[in-house]
Amino acid sequence: MTHPKLKTFEALGEYIDLLLDAICVVNPKGEFIYVSAGGERVFGYAPQEMIGHSMYEFMHPDDHERTHQATTEIMQGVVKFDFENRYIRKSGEVATILWSARYSEKDDLRVAVARDVTAQRKVEKERQQLLEKLEKLAMFDPLTELPNRSYFYQRATQALEHHSDIAIVYIDLNHFKEINDKYGHAIGDQILHAAAQRLSTAVRSHDTVARIGGDEFVVLLERIQQQSDAEAIVKKIQHALGKAIQIASIPNIQFDLAASFGIALSKQHGNDLEKLLLHADNAMYKAKRNA
């Protein structure tokens, strides 16, 4: 039996069909009883293919539950202007649909406008991915995938501002220039990458390892009460770096790395980041000379 309200939509059909959006009317069972011509552009089905069928037949299964929740709210009188879910088109393509919907208690029907925002959401996602990529390039070293100097400064500054007791460990790989000169920069880069991974696994989850240039790294150790706490972590780093590195392109050669370390503690050397870095750097070079 045709719902009397549909006569209104049918009378306006030639105008409604000019809309790029789809006008949909759904009965209490969740079945489409009217879909304007725009439905084919939005859903990928001709209106007559949708009428008489439940909206859930066309909807992405992962969106059924939250759509049901939204439908319940609409039936309680809440007008939805910005609800999104996904429909699966006849072609198999997944479309993102933006809905504006309300319930007519008088007619016991839900009336909604559906807009295809698939392309828009795709552009937004790509833009977000690009921004994340640019942010990563700005804050991470592309060779080792470690945080860079800028990221390190940001993290260390935040830690000091929150009055955290920190230690800064300056690390320089010994004799790395000789490896570069003898085997070339491509091999040297692979060794740097391997060393970076070992540094990352040797520290705690809340510490920060950064590459600040060449064969130099710096580690931000947080929640450090005394020198011995930092020294214990440095020993773990030394052990991790001390394991021989093998490069696939020259499997008959093992690279044994050694490093020089310098430690500065905020409890002993103050909360000025530049001074802490300078103290750690000087301590590292002193250790390097004595190596």
Automatic annotation (TrEMBL):
GGDEF domain sequence ranges: 164-291
InterPro entries hit by this protein: Biofilm_reg_signaling, GGDEF_dom, Nucleotide_cyclase, PAS, PAS-like_dom_sf, PAS_fold_3, Rev_trsase/Diguanyl_cyclase
Cofactors that this protein relies on: Mg(2+)
Highest taxon above the source species: Bacteria
Record-annotated PAS domain positions: 8-78
Gene Ontology molecular function: catalytic activity
Record-given protein name: Diguanylate cyclase with PAS/PAC sensor
